[in-house]
Fold this sequence. Notes:
The complex is a heterodimer of chains A (63) and B (352). With 63 residues, chain A is mainly α. Helix content of chain A is 90%, strand content 0%.
Amino acid sequence: MSEIRDGADRLRRTSEDIGAAWQDAASRRFRREVVDGLVVAAVALDVAESRAQQEIREASRDL
Amino acid sequence: MTAAHSSQEALQRSARGIAVFGAAMIAGDAAARSSLRSHEARAAEALEGRRADHHDAQSELGSARGALSAARTRVQAAQVEVSRAHAAVDPDPRYSGPGLARLRAAEGSLSAARSDESRAEQQVVRARRALAEAEEAMRRCRAAGERIHAASERYRRSALSYVGISGALILRGRAQLGRLSGLLDEYHAIGAYGSAPGASAASSGGPGAGAAAGGSGSYAAIAGWESRWGLTTVPLRDIDTVGSDECSARDRWDVERFENALPPLLAGEDWERRIDAADAASGRSGERTLREVVRRLLENPVTVLPGPPLHVVAGRGHVAAAQRAGLTELPVRCLAGDAADDAGVRVDGGVR
């Protein structure tokens, strides 16, 4: 899952580079509509997996 | 590296970033699912082990109960023999020796049988306890397996949703990057044959170059200028869909300038002076100036009949360009009342 977060971080940095270079609405929209959403999805997926693994670790004690 | 190359390189990096992200998400999800399947398999295997333990404990209890039953039968037989031996003892002490010997032997057998019975009873108690423990272990194991399965299912449902959302975002991102790349090419091409050298695209290296002249900002955030031309900003989704091939390069230019450069200049009474200053700073003249964009897009705006959906009676090229650029809103002139009726007649009459 760390690869997903890394990928999202790289993408966010790139979009920030573009946004800083262009200062325009199109790059802002790209960041808002695409990159921010991907970062949120990556974090949510990571959290979902961590939560599942934690629940499984606790349940495995009773196996 | 020139600014233009830098911008194209940034777009390519974004496209690569999206591709890498998509691949990482799919690989990460696959690895997580594999790990969860492995946990579920271990839980199922553990439950099988607990079932086997429970079966063994049941067998053990059955054996212990059988041994107890046999021990009790032996006790009863020994008790009968003691009674008989006792009855057979001769009351005359001279002849009572063999009877007493038989009685002592019978009492010894009874004592041994009772010891066996006691041991068998303890064995049954231990077997019952072991069975209860095996049942509890099996219950806990089954509940743990159900929790593991439920946690895995929750992850799978969440992942399905997040991966689906990401897939849609990646498609949207690719489309946007494609548009940005096309826009960049168009911008540089326009800059190359533009009427004056030093166009702002070349100076800032991107579609947002106009922002350098006019500042940047969301047109929706700058209120008031629409009323100057009797316009209303409406969601693009409320307008009839127009074929993407109905827009010209000039329509796309107008929409791109509108999105990225124009609205901040329109606020305030001195908007004309600011637009002229921005045009002068960009070095453009003729149809590519912001002044001309204002004339084409705001003074002769997209005109619609009341909806839903809003029916386009003028400015289809600009609507197509806005839809193609992914804008969410567009300023339009809405015809109402008699004007709408007149326009409706004209539309029906084939003027459209």
